[in-house]
Amino acid sequence: MYGFSKYEAQGRYDEWNTTQVKLKLNNKTDADIIAWIRKQKYSRDTSVQGAIKSLIRADIAGSQAEGAQG
Question: Model's pTM, two decimal places?
């Protein structure tokens, strides 16, 4: 395929269409968050990424609702 591997194509797609976010957590002070992430990781309900996105979207919706009321 035109001399490009699927990995090069994926890399180009990711560069243009995705954003990665890294979260650095302290094992002592963020133990509650780490425990929540581990619980989500081993749950069959959703992925950790999906669970975090749901929480963010709920916060966005709540913020927009507060803005409309106030």
Answer: 0.73
